[in-house]
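Bug report (template v2)

What were you trying to do?
Predict the complex of my protein with uracil.

What happened?
Run completed; filing so the output is reviewed.

Input:
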Amino acid sequence: MTDTVKENAVHRRAQFLEVLGIRTEWLPRVAIVAAEPAEDVVALADAGETAEAEPAAQRAPAQDAPVGATAEARGAGGRDGAPAVGRAPAPDIVSPLLPQRAAEIATLDWAGLEASVAGCTACGLCETRTQTVFGVGDRAAEWMLVGEAPGQNEDLQGEPFVGQAGKLLDNMLGALNLARGRNVFIANVLKCRPPENRDPAPDEVAQCEPYLRQQIALLRPKVIVVLGRFAAQSLLRTTTPIGKLRGTVHEYEGIPVVVTYHPAYLLRTLSDKARAWEDLCLAREVHDRAGAQA
Ligand code: URA
């Protein structure tokens, strides 16, 4: 690394620290691009969290157990606060019509995709939603952020990540010189809110997945940042805990993917903000590298 590159990196880190509210004595204990996070980091990140003390609206999904794990294994708290119920079993049976549905969705342009999502009745969530939440942002963006599913506020407002977690997310984006609607597109794995803040069920994920896939195909971002355990495990089709997914660059359809914590989780786990900051640094490096190669 040249001195200028090092200085830029230090400056960027300082910016992140300020925006994320991390004092300098909380400097991260792991290297920025750790191929495998250090044992204690993984242990900490995978220890599981409970959210009893937090206001409902600030709770986040548990960050440890895989998609499909029981509520007990995952810890308390749904996506936006209420007790999580009806945990999803391991993904298995899906509709035989799914391949045809996926093939049709794969032909849609942005307008067609948005209309298809708005009118979707492929799973039971259409009966309980207020509206679908398609995603928001620049459709030529180089950055894409992927969360889990709309919560109560998102269901009401029709936009992903509104509320306290959204504010933190916006601050994180600001630290990257990004803003909602400018060079970033934000979407969720699910386009409809699961009732009672339960985890998305496997059939819901399966029916909705072609939408996210096509959003990514149309956007072709330079980097995808996945927010939280559920989104990471769904997109990467893995059961690996988030603590182990962080720190490495993954790939989805040839696009680099960086995994970080869900902003709602970060609101109540101050110490992990430093790790989220490392993840964002990694994402920035991946993005800049892709830009240099373009
Ligand atoms: N949590 C998510 O994962 N997505 C949202 O849009 C809101 C909360």
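What did the reviewer find?
The pocket of uracil is lined by residues 79-80, 147-151, 154, 160-161, 165, 188 (CB under 6 Å). Residues 96 and 242 are 31 Å apart (CA to CA).
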